[in-house]
Task: inverse folding
């Protein structure tokens, strides 16, 4: 493996004595102050990294035989995926062997051309490939290989387990688990101490709860989310359990409003669930969460 580096913006920082993902000030302040992009090594590991560009992030794993990367995150910010490849090259001279899509939404998976040019094989859930083939987005690489329920990738000394845990934020989500490191990478349906917001718009709310329960049954200690959590921290099973409770609380509250004939506008004004007011994105995301549950309990959709 080549030298270990962490970069922030365009500057490389020597970090042999620093924790890669640690505590920080309030999330809003951090977002305003942090550089455009950064690559951090996950504390306690010797080969797991997080690449963040603005408010999206991906995981990549360096093995003795090459790199397993995830979501290119080159949506709108077209330069992000080229920066991502460049950041990997600062960490290792090993080839990029795989790119694994978390799900089919462009804000996470667009911009894969620099990875394809580097020779990577693209992998996604079967449903992701079906959707992408229909839409034909010019900036999103069609997967070379697909997963249905499960697949294990072993490259060099590293194993990554890919699992489909059912409908949630999308119908094509894969959870990526590193069994040795007890780390998972899961995008958009397991936000860390954050209200889902836009992630609810086209979601499957009943099935979402079941998928969270399946993830909780897996063996893992830390979660790398697709968007940075408060202070940039990683998630825990406690965070996943708290999210499940929030979904259940919101569902029950809006169900009552819907059956009282209050969906849509009245419910969006009245439903507050203030016990979650301290979560990131509460004010902006709450109306979208209520709207989605109004669709479920008020219209049956």
Result:
């Amino acid at each position: 493996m080549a030298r270990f580096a962490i970069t922030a913006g365009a500057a490389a920082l020597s970090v042999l004595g620093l924790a890669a993902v640690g505590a920080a000030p309030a999330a809003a302040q951090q977002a305003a102050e942090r550089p455009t992009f950064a690559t951090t090594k996950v504390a306690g590991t010797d080969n797991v990294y997080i690449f963040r560009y603005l408010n999206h992030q991906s995981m990549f794993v360096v093995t003795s035989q090459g790199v397993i990367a995830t979501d290119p995150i080159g949506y709108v910010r077209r330069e992000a995926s080229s920066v991502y490849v460049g950041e990997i090259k600062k960490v290792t001279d090993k080839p990029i062997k795989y790119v694994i899509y978390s799900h089919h939404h462009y804000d996470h998976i667009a911009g894969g051309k620099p990875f394809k040019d580097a020779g990577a094989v693209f992998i996604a859930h079967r449903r992701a490939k079906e959707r992408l083939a229909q839409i034909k987005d010019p900036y999103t690489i069609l997967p070379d290989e697909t997963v249905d329920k499960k697949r294990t990738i072993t490259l060099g000394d590293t194993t990554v387990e890919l699992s489909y845990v059912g409908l949630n934020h999308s119908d094509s989500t894969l959870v990526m688990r590193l069994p040795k490191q007890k780390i998972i990478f899961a995008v958009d349906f397991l936000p860390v101490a954050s209200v889902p917001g836009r992630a609810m718009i086209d979601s499957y709310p009943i099935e979402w709860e079941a998928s969270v329960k399946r993830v909780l049954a897996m063996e893992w200690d830390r979660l790398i989310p697709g968007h940075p959590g408060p202070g940039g921290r990683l998630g825990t099973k406690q965070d996943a359990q708290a999210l499940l409770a929030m979904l259940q609380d919101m569902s029950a509250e809006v169900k009552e409003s819907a059956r009282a004939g209050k969906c849509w506008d009245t419910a969006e004004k009245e439903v507050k669930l203030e016990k979650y007011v301290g979560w990131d994105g509460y004010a902006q995301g709450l109306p979208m969460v209520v709207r989605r549950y109004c669709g479920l309990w008020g219209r049956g959709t």
